[in-house]
Fold:
Amino acid sequence: MQNPSAPAEEIRAHVFVSGIVQGVGYRYSTAQQAKYLGVSGWVRNLPDGRVEAVFEGTQDIVEEMIRWCHQGPSAAVVKDVAVEYETPERLRGFEMRR
Structure:
């Protein structure tokens, strides 16, 4: 039985979002949503038109962030969200990268 007062285990998701996701406020909105949920990590545009992001936190908030990525901001048209799970690096805070 797990100790209910023990801290929840953190996970890391490396996410690639494709579709119309650049020039529509996707990075900014992702950063705002991540900060709201308390997710750590970063987001950036890729030269091929996709958006790349890393989310770290408890499984429930990271999975909520991934669900949000499938929709994104209202101007975005998300075609695919590819997720790779990796070992957390214990990132703190969330940043937009260029």
